[in-house]
Specification:
Strand content: under 5%
Largest sheet: 2 strands, antiparallel
Helix content: over 70%
Oligomer: single chain
Distance between the termini: 38 Å
Order of helices and strands: HHHHHHHHHEHHHHHHHHHE
Length: 415
């Protein structure tokens, strides 16, 4: 298989994505051991997670712009170093500022890998874009399932410090090696922008290759941004706090292990399934259905989660299966609306919505509400309402997209 084969490139990028999955999705396994080993307050430890997400998201508009123009290899190589050194060193952090700095370094590396890999999928696969983006996003959302049993066992036998060190070194090396094989597809001949009879750039969906500045001038971008924030909040609340929630509800370590093992599988399956479905039923319709189901599942965590280990695990799995699709639907929709030429940069800006959601879900709406009310359920109920609002906005997005397509079909154009 040639290095320029699109499936080879997809698989190579997928390996890199799997290697950064633990940085976010295995974090909850380290929270309680860190707290017990250091005596640091839970809220301070989770603040490090929040800042990791900020770096993992807000660095992407910068690196996305550069990767679109310079290619992914150099950036992903640097990412391997940052992820390896940052994650490996966190076990030996002697203060909250040191822990935070190392986690942010790993977050910067993860930003390079994420934006480069998603952008590659959108560029190499101009048809079946939902499926390709879903497979790529599944590596990040579900990849940690491969490591959860090992991490859980190693923390129990060797401690969290050794676990950070070993997994950090392995992840960093694999990312740096894979980076040497990554390429962008050969550049297609540049097409002249479609110009309407009135002399302006036509907003025909999928025709004009929008630059990021042009994307930021469209109402559709801001509607998608709000939807992304609303939907990302609930899943991030679960991701950051599953360990402390299980402990508060008096559930066993085995229950947490089952939940944290199965949830990434559901998260990964969600991204592939809903991405595949969106190629067939449309991005907006897939959003409407999935977001509505997410609202129901979030409410069920608050109602049934505390009652037994089974319901705790089952409801978390359902939440992830109806949440992970945002990381396949939004990038594929972005490329559909705005074109593939600047797909890395355009989606990187949209992806910063995850950073906004983190401030709400991981710290503000999760740990803060628990500390104020003594209940985790309130955060889940609020997140359920937000998911319902996102579903309503998806209806509006569907209507606006249909209108834009109808208008574009009627506008006479000339090159």
């Amino acid at each position: 298989m040639s290095i320029n084969n699109r499936w080879f490139q997809l698989c190579a990028s997928l390996i890199a994505m799997i290697m950064i999955a633990n940085l976010q999705y295995a974090w909850t396994l380290f929270v309680t051991p860190l707290q017990e080993g250091t005596g640091w307050p839970l809220r301070d430890i989770q603040a490090a997670f929040t800042l990791f997400i900020f770096f993992q998201t807000w660095v992407q508009p910068i690196d996305g712009f550069l990767i679109d123009r310079l290619g992914p290899r150099g950036f992903i190589t640097v990412a391997g170093i940052l992820c390896g050194v940052g994650w490996a060193g966190m076990g030996y952090a002697s203060s909250i500022p040191m822990l935070t700095a190392l986690y942010c370094a790993a977050g910067t590396g993860a930003a390079f890998v994420y934006s480069g890999s998603i952008g590659s999928a959108l560029k190499w696969f101009k048809e079946k874009r939902g499926l390709a983006a879903g497979i790529m996003a599944a590596g990040f959302g579900g990849g940690t399932a491969l490591f959860i049993p090992f991490i859980q066992s190693m923390i129990a036998t060797s401690g969290y410090q050794q676990t950070f060190l070993v997994t950090g070194i392995v992840q960093g090396l694999v990312i740096a090696i894979v980076a040497q094989f990554l390429r962008h597809p050969p550049a297609a001949p540049a097409a002249a922008p479609a110009v309407s009879a009135k002399g302006g750039v036509s907003q025909q969906i999928g025709k004009h290759q929008f630059t990021t500045l042009e994307v930021l001038s469209t109402p559709r971008f801001y509607m998608m941004y709000v939807m992304f924030v609303l939907m990302a909040t609930g899943g991030l609340l679960v991701t950051a706090n599953a360990g402390p929630i299980a402990k508060t509800w008096g559930l066993s370590t085995l229950a947490l292990t089952w939940a944290t093992t199965l949830s990434p599988l559901a998260n990964g399956a969600s991204r592939v399934f809903w991405g595949w479905a969106s190629d067939r039923i449309g991005r907006e319709m897939a959003m409407i259905v999935a977001f509505s189901l997410q609202a129901v599942c979030l409410a069920l965590v608050g109602v049934l989660g505390p009652t037994s280990p089974f319901w705790f695990s089952a409801t978390l799995v359902l939440v992830y299966f109806t949440w992970g699709e945002i990381y396949s639907l939004f990038p594929s929709a972005s490329a559909d609306y705005f074109g593939a030429a600047h797909a890395t940069s355009n989606y990187a800006v949209l992806y910063t919505a995850k950073g906004v959601a983190t401030a709400i879900g991981a710290l503000g709406l999760g740990a803060f509400l628990y500390e104020q009310t003594g209940s985790w359920a309130t955060g889940f109920y609020i997140s359920a309402v937000m998911a319902l609002v996102a579903a309503v906005l998806a209806f509006r997005l569907r209507a606006s997209t249909a209108t834009a397509k109808a208008k574009a079909a009627k506008i006479p154009v000339h090159a």
